[in-house]
Amino acid sequence: MIKKRHVVLIIVALVALSVMFAGPAVGAKKFFAIATGGTGGTYYPLGGVLAQALSTKIPDIIMTAQSGNASVANCNLIREHEIESAFVQNNVAFAAYTGTAQFEGNPVKNIRGIASLYPETIQIVARADAGIKSIMDIKGKRLIPGDRGSGTEVDCLNILKALGLSYDDFENVDWLSFSGASQRLKDKQADVAFITAGWPTSAITELATTSDIVMVPVDEALIAKIVKMYPFYAKVVIPAGTYKGVAMDTPAVTTMAQWVCDARIPKNIIYQLTQALWEKGTYVLRKKDGKAAEAESGAAIMAQAHSKGKDVTLETALDGMAIPLHPGAAQFYREKGMIK
């Protein structure tokens, strides 16, 4: 079976070849990238699907998805104008724009919102034999808080602060991607890992097929404390059966995944992308009965490709949007009567 990473690379290669052989008219096309996350998370496959879907609908834009280190790193890329757009957590986007938390003294004033996509859950996964039954049991264990500087690490640190803990309270701390964390747990070189992503997350799904795991619940009192400390969080429940061997619902904390961009991207481009995300259109090259064939919205194609894509809806497009909208996106939502 072809891996998701290979599928996205094949898509990018095919698009590049089409540019090379399509003739002079293609010279006006613009490349537009989405920085996503590690290959074991949700950002990467959804970003690849979205890039492919929108490239087929917009005549003058070729979109690509790039794997990366997720939210914090993606915001830094936006600040330095090294990427056109990115997927980030809404709490990280807010911190970036306001120059708070890990962005203190170095704000990302050029970050702008396109859309909120879906809820991202802070999933705390542990080996079943690590003796972790409650959130407090993680103290003293071998911890993986996510990639260094990632949104997942920010979430981990926020929860640790609510618990009154720091990295000093753990036997060992190792910063790894989702796939790396899964492998360390499988090899019994770590006890517990934080993974902020839409569920089911492939890294946890794959781990659960080879190892016995537990999803660590966050108790009601702690959830209430976290939400009071950080209002951009909310309670969510990961349903029983989401992962093999996990037979009980797991209370957890969630945030929103957002699609953001660089403020200097022209208004008309972001308007086209926002419209193509939410509305049907026509394929650039494909025809039916001599006419351009109808294309589904980017959101509809995401829903067909990934379970979290089903949560990408126009109704929640502005949920948790705590940074300014790009003027192109704002124009679309204004036309829809969603903002004034």
Would you give an account of this structure?
- There is one protein chain.
- This protein has 340 residues and is an alpha/beta fold.
- It folds into 2 domains: 4-118 and 257-335, D-Maltodextrin-Binding Protein, domain 2; 120-256, D-Maltodextrin-Binding Protein, domain 2.
- The chain contains 11 helices and 12 strands.
- The chain has helices at 4-21, 43-55, 71-79, 90-98, 151-163, 178-186, 202-210, 220-229, 267-278, 298-305, 327-335; strands spanning 30-35, 61-66, 85-89, 111-127, 142-144, 172-173, 192-197, 213-215, 234-238, 250-262, 281-288, 291-295.
- The strands form 2 sheets. Strands 1, 2, 3, 4, 5, 6, 7, 8, 9 and 10 form a 10-stranded mixed sheet that branches. A two-stranded antiparallel sheet has the order 11-12.
- A hairpin with a 2-residue loop joins β11 and β12.
- α2 packs across α10 (298-305), α5 crosses α8 (220-229) and α6 (178-186) runs parallel beside α7 (202-210).
- The chain starts with a helix and ends in a 5-residue tail after the last helix.
- The model is unreliable at 1-27 (pLDDT under 50).
